[in-house]
Amino acid sequence: MSAPASDKPRLSDAEMLARFQNSKKRPPCSETLGMRLAEVEQDAKRIRMDFDVPQIFANPTGAVQGGFIAAMMDEAMSTCCIIASNVTMTAPTLEMKTSYLRRLMPGKASVEARILKWGRSAAFMEAECFDHEGKLVAKATATAIPMPFKRLS
Amino acid sequence: MIEDKDAYWRTLLTSHKLPGATGFVGFELIDLDCDAGWCEAAFKLPEQAINPGGNAQGGFITAILDEVMSLAGAIVQAPPAMSPTLQMTTSFIRPVPVGVRLIARGETVRQGSAAIFTQGWLHSEDGKLLAQATASCIPRPMS
Question: Cβ of B111 under 8 Å from any chain A Cβ?
Fold first, then answer.
Protein backbone atom coordinates (compact mmCIF):
# COMPACT_ATOMS: atom_id res chain seq x y z
CA MET A 1 0.00 0.00 0.00
CA SER A 2 1.36 3.41 -0.78
CA ALA A 3 1.53 6.31 1.64
CA PRO A 4 -1.49 8.61 1.80
CA ALA A 5 -1.47 11.39 -0.77
CA SER A 6 -1.07 14.77 0.84
CA ASP A 7 -3.73 17.47 0.42
CA LYS A 8 -1.09 19.89 -0.79
CA PRO A 9 -1.71 20.95 -4.40
CA ARG A 10 0.79 19.35 -6.75
CA LEU A 11 3.33 21.45 -8.56
CA SER A 12 4.26 20.83 -12.19
CA ASP A 13 7.67 19.24 -12.82
CA ALA A 14 9.03 22.62 -13.94
CA GLU A 15 7.69 24.35 -10.81
CA MET A 16 9.13 21.67 -8.53
CA LEU A 17 12.51 21.95 -10.26
CA ALA A 18 12.48 25.75 -9.89
CA ARG A 19 11.53 25.47 -6.22
CA PHE A 20 14.61 23.36 -5.48
CA GLN A 21 16.95 25.32 -7.75
CA ASN A 22 15.93 28.62 -6.14
CA SER A 23 15.97 27.35 -2.54
CA LYS A 24 17.86 29.72 -0.25
CA LYS A 25 18.20 27.27 2.64
CA ARG A 26 20.01 24.31 1.15
CA PRO A 27 21.57 21.91 3.68
CA PRO A 28 25.37 22.13 4.03
CA CYS A 29 25.88 18.65 2.56
CA SER A 30 24.28 19.77 -0.75
CA GLU A 31 26.64 22.75 -1.00
CA THR A 32 29.62 20.58 -0.11
CA LEU A 33 28.95 18.24 -3.04
CA GLY A 34 28.32 21.04 -5.56
CA MET A 35 24.80 19.68 -6.11
CA ARG A 36 22.29 21.09 -8.62
CA LEU A 37 18.90 19.49 -9.31
CA ALA A 38 18.67 19.16 -13.11
CA GLU A 39 15.53 17.12 -13.92
CA VAL A 40 12.30 16.18 -12.14
CA GLU A 41 9.75 13.63 -13.41
CA GLN A 42 7.15 13.27 -10.68
CA ASP A 43 5.02 10.66 -12.48
CA ALA A 44 8.06 8.42 -13.04
CA LYS A 45 9.29 9.22 -9.47
CA ARG A 46 12.68 10.04 -10.98
CA ILE A 47 15.16 12.90 -10.72
CA ARG A 48 18.59 13.79 -12.10
CA MET A 49 21.19 15.81 -10.24
CA ASP A 50 24.42 17.34 -11.48
CA PHE A 51 27.47 17.55 -9.23
CA ASP A 52 30.82 19.26 -9.32
CA VAL A 53 33.00 17.12 -7.05
CA PRO A 54 35.83 19.08 -5.38
CA GLN A 55 39.42 17.88 -5.60
CA ILE A 56 39.55 17.45 -1.80
CA PHE A 57 37.36 14.31 -2.03
CA ALA A 58 40.14 12.35 -3.75
CA ASN A 59 41.72 9.21 -2.32
CA PRO A 60 45.49 8.52 -2.60
CA THR A 61 45.10 7.57 -6.30
CA GLY A 62 43.45 10.91 -7.18
CA ALA A 63 40.02 9.33 -7.81
CA VAL A 64 36.95 10.27 -5.74
CA GLN A 65 36.79 8.23 -2.51
CA GLY A 66 33.85 5.79 -2.61
CA GLY A 67 32.05 7.31 0.36
CA PHE A 68 31.67 10.60 -1.46
CA ILE A 69 30.18 8.83 -4.48
CA ALA A 70 27.76 7.26 -1.98
CA ALA A 71 27.09 10.76 -0.59
CA MET A 72 26.03 12.01 -4.04
CA MET A 73 23.72 9.05 -4.57
CA ASP A 74 22.27 9.35 -1.04
CA GLU A 75 21.61 13.02 -1.75
CA ALA A 76 19.79 12.17 -4.99
CA MET A 77 17.74 9.31 -3.51
CA SER A 78 16.73 11.40 -0.46
CA THR A 79 15.68 14.33 -2.63
CA CYS A 80 13.69 11.92 -4.81
CA CYS A 81 11.79 10.85 -1.67
CA ILE A 82 11.05 14.44 -0.65
CA ILE A 83 9.69 15.18 -4.14
CA ALA A 84 7.67 11.92 -4.23
CA SER A 85 5.93 13.07 -1.03
CA ASN A 86 5.14 16.47 -2.60
CA VAL A 87 7.58 18.03 -0.11
CA THR A 88 5.63 16.88 2.96
CA MET A 89 7.96 14.10 4.09
CA THR A 90 11.57 13.11 4.30
CA ALA A 91 13.02 9.60 4.41
CA PRO A 92 16.10 8.89 6.55
CA THR A 93 18.18 6.15 4.94
CA LEU A 94 18.22 2.79 6.77
CA GLU A 95 20.62 0.88 4.57
CA MET A 96 22.45 1.56 1.32
CA LYS A 97 24.43 -0.77 -0.94
CA THR A 98 26.81 0.69 -3.50
CA SER A 99 28.63 -1.04 -6.37
CA TYR A 100 31.71 0.76 -7.68
CA LEU A 101 32.07 -0.09 -11.39
CA ARG A 102 34.85 2.31 -12.39
CA ARG A 103 36.91 5.24 -11.14
CA LEU A 104 35.40 8.72 -10.92
CA MET A 105 37.79 11.67 -11.09
CA PRO A 106 36.93 14.98 -9.32
CA GLY A 107 34.88 17.36 -11.48
CA LYS A 108 31.54 16.98 -13.26
CA ALA A 109 29.31 13.99 -12.48
CA SER A 110 25.58 13.28 -12.51
CA VAL A 111 23.24 10.98 -10.62
CA GLU A 112 19.84 9.60 -11.63
CA ALA A 113 17.64 8.40 -8.78
CA ARG A 114 14.30 6.58 -8.84
CA ILE A 115 11.77 5.46 -6.25
CA LEU A 116 11.06 1.75 -6.68
CA LYS A 117 8.35 1.75 -4.00
CA TRP A 118 7.01 4.58 -1.88
CA GLY A 119 5.17 2.78 0.92
CA ARG A 120 3.60 3.78 4.22
CA SER A 121 6.36 2.28 6.37
CA ALA A 122 9.23 1.83 3.92
CA ALA A 123 10.62 3.31 0.73
CA PHE A 124 12.91 1.57 -1.77
CA MET A 125 15.16 3.60 -4.04
CA GLU A 126 17.91 3.12 -6.58
CA ALA A 127 20.49 5.44 -8.13
CA GLU A 128 23.12 5.45 -10.85
CA CYS A 129 26.16 7.73 -10.96
CA PHE A 130 27.71 8.77 -14.30
CA ASP A 131 31.01 10.50 -15.09
CA HIS A 132 31.32 13.55 -17.38
CA GLU A 133 31.36 11.27 -20.45
CA GLY A 134 28.15 9.53 -19.37
CA LYS A 135 29.88 6.29 -18.35
CA LEU A 136 28.26 4.38 -15.48
CA VAL A 137 30.54 4.78 -12.43
CA ALA A 138 28.44 3.38 -9.58
CA LYS A 139 25.04 1.93 -8.82
CA ALA A 140 23.22 1.94 -5.48
CA THR A 141 20.05 0.65 -3.88
CA ALA A 142 18.69 1.85 -0.54
CA THR A 143 15.84 1.55 1.92
CA ALA A 144 14.39 4.40 3.98
CA ILE A 145 11.52 5.20 6.35
CA PRO A 146 9.16 7.98 5.19
CA MET A 147 8.50 10.51 7.99
CA PRO A 148 6.63 13.79 8.14
CA PHE A 149 9.12 16.69 8.10
CA LYS A 150 8.18 17.97 11.56
CA ARG A 151 9.01 14.71 13.38
CA LEU A 152 12.68 15.14 12.61
CA SER A 153 13.08 18.52 14.25
CA MET B 1 60.71 -5.91 1.50
CA ILE B 2 59.30 -3.99 4.46
CA GLU B 3 60.06 -5.85 7.71
CA ASP B 4 57.85 -4.10 10.27
CA LYS B 5 54.52 -3.63 8.52
CA ASP B 6 52.78 -2.07 11.53
CA ALA B 7 55.53 0.57 11.86
CA TYR B 8 55.43 1.27 8.09
CA TRP B 9 51.68 1.99 8.18
CA ARG B 10 51.81 3.94 11.45
CA THR B 11 54.43 6.26 10.00
CA LEU B 12 52.55 6.68 6.71
CA LEU B 13 49.23 7.40 8.44
CA THR B 14 50.54 9.82 11.06
CA SER B 15 53.42 11.72 9.50
CA HIS B 16 52.53 11.68 5.81
CA LYS B 17 50.29 14.35 4.29
CA LEU B 18 46.85 12.71 4.27
CA PRO B 19 44.75 12.49 1.06
CA GLY B 20 41.89 14.99 0.72
CA ALA B 21 39.07 12.58 1.47
CA THR B 22 40.88 11.29 4.56
CA GLY B 23 41.46 14.81 5.85
CA PHE B 24 37.86 15.88 5.19
CA VAL B 25 36.43 13.27 7.56
CA GLY B 26 38.98 14.19 10.27
CA PHE B 27 40.93 10.91 10.28
CA GLU B 28 43.24 10.32 13.24
CA LEU B 29 44.86 6.88 13.60
CA ILE B 30 44.38 5.14 16.96
CA ASP B 31 46.05 1.79 16.29
CA LEU B 32 46.38 -1.05 13.78
CA ASP B 33 47.58 -4.64 13.55
CA CYS B 34 48.57 -5.83 10.06
CA ASP B 35 48.77 -9.53 10.94
CA ALA B 36 45.39 -9.56 12.70
CA GLY B 37 43.97 -7.31 9.93
CA TRP B 38 42.30 -4.55 11.93
CA CYS B 39 42.65 -0.82 12.40
CA GLU B 40 40.97 1.79 14.57
CA ALA B 41 40.78 5.51 13.98
CA ALA B 42 39.02 8.55 15.39
CA PHE B 43 37.03 10.83 13.07
CA LYS B 44 35.31 14.19 13.31
CA LEU B 45 32.97 15.27 10.51
CA PRO B 46 32.90 18.96 9.50
CA GLU B 47 29.71 21.05 9.28
CA GLN B 48 29.78 20.61 5.49
CA ALA B 49 28.42 17.07 6.09
CA ILE B 50 25.14 18.20 7.74
CA ASN B 51 21.86 16.98 6.19
CA PRO B 52 18.46 18.72 6.47
CA GLY B 53 17.82 16.77 9.71
CA GLY B 54 20.88 18.38 11.35
CA ASN B 55 23.00 15.21 11.45
CA ALA B 56 25.63 13.70 9.16
CA GLN B 57 24.43 12.78 5.66
CA GLY B 58 24.74 9.02 5.07
CA GLY B 59 27.36 9.24 2.35
CA PHE B 60 29.83 10.90 4.70
CA ILE B 61 29.23 8.11 7.24
CA THR B 62 29.97 5.67 4.41
CA ALA B 63 33.13 7.69 3.68
CA ILE B 64 34.35 7.18 7.28
CA LEU B 65 33.71 3.44 7.16
CA ASP B 66 35.29 3.17 3.69
CA GLU B 67 38.47 4.75 5.15
CA VAL B 68 38.94 2.16 7.94
CA MET B 69 37.69 -0.80 5.88
CA SER B 70 39.91 0.03 2.89
CA LEU B 71 42.81 0.45 5.30
CA ALA B 72 42.05 -2.94 6.89
CA GLY B 73 42.09 -4.46 3.38
CA ALA B 74 45.36 -2.69 2.51
CA ILE B 75 47.42 -3.55 5.61
CA VAL B 76 46.96 -7.33 5.28
CA GLN B 77 48.86 -7.22 1.95
CA ALA B 78 52.60 -6.73 1.39
CA PRO B 79 53.09 -2.94 1.61
CA PRO B 80 52.65 -0.67 -0.20
CA ALA B 81 49.20 -1.83 -1.33
CA MET B 82 45.60 -0.65 -1.69
CA SER B 83 42.23 -2.37 -1.68
CA PRO B 84 39.79 -0.64 -4.08
CA THR B 85 36.18 -1.22 -2.96
CA LEU B 86 33.94 -3.19 -5.32
CA GLN B 87 30.75 -3.14 -3.28
CA MET B 88 29.82 -1.83 0.15
CA THR B 89 26.63 -1.97 2.24
CA THR B 90 26.13 0.49 5.09
CA SER B 91 23.44 0.29 7.78
CA PHE B 92 22.63 3.63 9.41
CA ILE B 93 21.76 2.50 12.92
CA ARG B 94 21.58 5.81 14.80
CA PRO B 95 21.88 9.49 13.80
CA VAL B 96 25.56 10.52 13.57
CA PRO B 97 26.46 13.98 14.89
CA VAL B 98 28.99 16.27 13.22
CA GLY B 99 31.78 18.08 15.09
CA VAL B 100 32.01 15.23 17.61
CA ARG B 101 34.81 12.69 18.01
CA LEU B 102 33.75 9.28 16.66
CA ILE B 103 35.52 5.93 16.78
CA ALA B 104 35.63 3.58 13.76
CA ARG B 105 37.08 0.09 13.41
CA GLY B 106 37.77 -1.81 10.19
CA GLU B 107 38.57 -5.52 9.96
CA THR B 108 39.54 -7.92 7.21
CA VAL B 109 37.22 -10.92 7.39
CA ARG B 110 38.95 -12.96 4.68
CA GLN B 111 41.96 -12.29 2.51
CA GLY B 112 41.85 -14.28 -0.72
CA SER B 113 44.21 -14.03 -3.69
CA ALA B 114 41.61 -12.26 -5.85
CA ALA B 115 39.24 -10.77 -3.27
CA ILE B 116 39.26 -9.33 0.25
CA PHE B 117 36.16 -9.12 2.45
CA THR B 118 36.00 -6.40 5.11
CA GLN B 119 33.62 -5.13 7.80
CA GLY B 120 33.46 -1.96 9.86
CA TRP B 121 31.69 -0.26 12.74
CA LEU B 122 31.23 3.34 13.81
CA HIS B 123 30.70 4.09 17.51
CA SER B 124 30.20 7.21 19.60
CA GLU B 125 32.87 7.82 22.22
CA ASP B 126 30.50 6.46 24.90
CA GLY B 127 30.20 3.19 22.98
CA LYS B 128 26.86 3.46 21.11
CA LEU B 129 26.83 1.70 17.73
CA LEU B 130 26.00 4.34 15.09
CA ALA B 131 26.59 2.51 11.79
CA GLN B 132 28.01 -0.73 10.43
CA ALA B 133 29.10 -1.93 7.01
CA THR B 134 30.43 -4.86 5.00
CA ALA B 135 32.40 -4.68 1.76
CA SER B 136 34.21 -6.68 -0.88
CA CYS B 137 37.36 -5.32 -2.47
CA ILE B 138 40.34 -6.42 -4.57
CA PRO B 139 44.00 -6.60 -3.50
CA ARG B 140 46.20 -4.18 -5.42
CA PRO B 141 49.98 -3.95 -4.84
CA MET B 142 51.35 -0.45 -5.42
CA SER B 143 55.07 -1.11 -5.79
Answer: no
